[in-house]
Write a structure and sequence with these properties.
The chain is mainly α. It is 78% helix and 0% strand. The longest helix is centred in the C-terminal third of the chain and has 39 residues. It is globular, with a radius of gyration of 34 Å.
């Protein structure tokens, strides 16, 4: 059974090697000159993640409508559902029964789990790649490898990770017995469970600290909350400000080592960017996925509507939104790297941007995610909502502003030209009316004077 499960992966590796050997030029062209790698690793997963998150929001609202009168079900007051209601989307499907809803929710949660695990693997690969490039000794060895070869390896790896056709667990169970259903045949699950998860979960525990450190952190947070409560009582601070400060401090403790690098040169701040954008986010995402898996097993015996489980699933949606924004921002920063290298403190600004994206109290990732979804709806990449207005997209605003500014410039030029003509006419009339003679009479007099006045040649002829 083990050999049968490994056979598709072995055949894929042999096929990739043969394709590289026989069609070397075509392989290099596809990997280097065509943006196929970016489409497979960034744009395609972003599209699937946005669609999956919207589908999950739809099912959340259907769930609330179906179980509105059920006192045993806790209503899900999650932000995505509230966002959909604020947008005016009617997510209630009267034809969907509770059994169908359970099946759709199960499929949606499995799809979201697969997407989150993919983003964790992608973030870890990119973070390790950046870290190897920044290390002084390793950088010399990596620099000897051509960029084309690295892109070819990444293309082969991510095609294997996402598009390798494999039999499902049910098919494996029919072929090798019921015990084979316990083993996942998905490539992402295989890589995540055997390689990534054993590394990231201890890293997440390290970022939280040991028991003594946790006790000190809890004591510090308790003292800070007491001090802020006194400030609120003395009306020196609002209650909303107190909650926001506590939330930022609690969420930002793991980012403290990276924030210290803001006081250092850019060479050290670059390590802080990798730590914040890559390792901390992947560790927290892996911790969220592990907590959901453990609570899913408990929910199988208790209820799928456990408030803690619903909260964890919404936390997963938050991380999926963050990854959609982070990878696209990372793509834009990589394209502008040659320009940013000439700007002072650009690395420090990048670190501040990543902290702003990751901390939920600042709302950076949700803001950019909404802009991304709006732009994708405006270009027709995803299906827009009923309340969608194309004029509100960022692209249309820029186009309208550019067209309006161009029209106003042309209008101002025309007005200025007319003013110049009027000024010239008024100047000419003021010069002509100095002695009180009308303009028409003065023009006739000037023409007659010109006729009566002899030229130099005529005067010379008369004297001769």
């Amino acid at each position: 059974m083990t050999l049968a499960m490994c056979l598709p992966h072995i055949l894929y590796g042999v096929g990739a090697f043969v394709a590289k050997w026989l069609l070397s030029d075509v392989f290099v062209y596809i990997a280097s000159d065509v943006p196929l790698l970016e489409c497979i690793t960034v744009f395609g997963p972003t599209f699937h993640t946005v669609v999956a998150v919207q589908r999950y929001q739809h099912l959340c609202n259907v769930h609330r409508k179906l179980y509105a009168n059920d006192p045993l079900v806790v209503e899900d007051d999650s932000p995505p559902c509230e966002d959909n209601e604020r947008r005016g989307v009617d997510n209630y499907d009267p034809t969907m029964t509770k059994i169908q809803l359970k099946k759709e929710e199960k499929k949606s949660n499995a799809h979201l789990q697969k997407l989150l695990r993919y983003w964790i693997i992608y973030g870890l690969v990119i973070s390790f790649g950046k870290l190897l490039i920044m290390l002084p000794l390793v950088c010399r060895l990596v620099s000897k490898i051509e960029d084309n070869m690295i892109r070819q390896l990444l293309l082969v790896m991510f095609v294997w990770l996402r598009y390798l056709p494999l039999p499902s667990s049910k098919q494996m169970g029919k072929t090798f017995g019921k015990h084979a259903r316990l083993y996942s045949t998905n490539t992402i699950d295989i890589v995540y469970c055997n390689l990534v998860q054993p590394f990231l979960l201890p890293l997440a525990n390290v970022t939280e600290g040991r028991k003594q450190t946790r006790g000190m952190i809890e004591f510090f947070l308790a003292q800070l909350e007491t001090f802020l409560s006194v400030c609120v009582f003395m009306k020196a601070l609002r209650a909303e400000g107190k909650e926001q400060i506590v939330h930022v401090v609690t969420e930002g403790l793991a980012l403290l080592p990276a924030c210290i690098t803001l006081l250092m040169p850019s060479m050290f701040t670059a390590y802080g960017c990798v730590y914040v954008g890559g390792f901390v986010s992947t560790a927290n995402s892996a911790k969220c996925d592990d907590a959901i898996v453990k609570n899913d097993k408990k929910a199988a015996f208790i209820s799928d509507d456990d408030p803690k489980l619903l909260q964890l699933r919404m936390l997963r949606v938050r991380w999926l939104r963050y990854w959609c924004v982070y990878v696209n921002v990372l793509f834009l920063l990589a394209r502008a790297d040659s320009i940013l290298a000439w700007i002072p403190l650009s690395t420090h600004a990048t670190l501040i941007l990543l902290v702003w994206l990751q901390l939920p109290a600042f709302g950076g990732a949700p803001l950019l995610y909404d802009i991304l979804v709006t732009e994708m709806s405006g270009f027709g990449i995803i299906e827009p909502d009923e309340s969608f207005d194309a004029e509100k997209t960022l692209t249309m605003r820029l186009l309208n502003r550019m067209s309006t500014s161009g029209f106003e410039k042309e209008k101002n030029d025309d007005v200025g030209h007319e003013v110049e003509i009027d000024d010239a006419e008024s100047l000419h009339s003021s010069r002509s009316n100095k002695d009180g003679i009308p303009l028409e009479k003065r023009a006739v007099m000037e023409s007659s004077e010109e006729r009566e006045t002899p030229t130099i040649m005529e005067s010379a002829a008369i004297t001769n």
